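Hi,

I'm pasting everything inline rather than attaching a file, because the server keeps stripping attachments. The sequence lines come first, and each chain or strand is labelled.
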Amino acid sequence: DAGVTQSPTHLIKTRGQHVTLRCSPISGHKSVSWYQQVLGQGPQFIFQYYEKEERGRGNFPDRFSARQFPNYSSELNVNALLLGDSALYLCASSLAGTAISYEQYFGPGTRLTVT
Amino acid sequence: AQSVTQPDIHITVSEGASLELRCNYSYGATPYLFWYVQSPGQGLQLLLKYFSGDTLVQGIKGFEAEFKRSQSSFNLRKPSVHWSDAAEYFCAVGAKNSGGSNYKLTFGKGTLLTVNP
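And the predicted assembly:
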């Protein structure tokens, strides 16, 4: 079975632009979470979606938004990009988000560079 | 709010030597603890997890970790390190999203492991 896939792999954007990152969860998984990993830091939680509804949001500005589609894939959108948004964006899928026993499987990430 | 501290930013060991990576957590309730490994250019892979029960947990690739509630620690160990273990290691605590019933992971800043031949 395919693991979590993310696209694109790498992306270079200019300050002020908008970006959309995509994630396809493992087949059968209904929960998708997004994390931001700045160089030299651990991943930080951005959003969690389960059954197409937002179930959690981290401490990120409103420039960050996300959605989940009927096929459980997800998009992360970032508006008005800042240099500080440069990071590796990780997507994780799990069967559900309602129990910690549902392991989160991570994708390879999208490396975003803002110039 | 929960937090995770990994005191060692970078550790260097010789191949065949033993390894211990430290992790301390802060969480008001029963902690759910994880160790992940990240190789360059790759996502995170789960090494092991602790939910309850036996405080010594076994994981993949010969790793184990011991939960010590009195010390708020969950240190990762391996008796004999292989060159392929060189990577970055992250400790994480699982906690409910604020106001919700779903869970998120809070990570430490990671420990970079270098293995000398």
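The CA atoms of residues 3 and 26 of chain B lie 5 Å apart.

If the labels don't parse on your end, tell me and I'll reformat.
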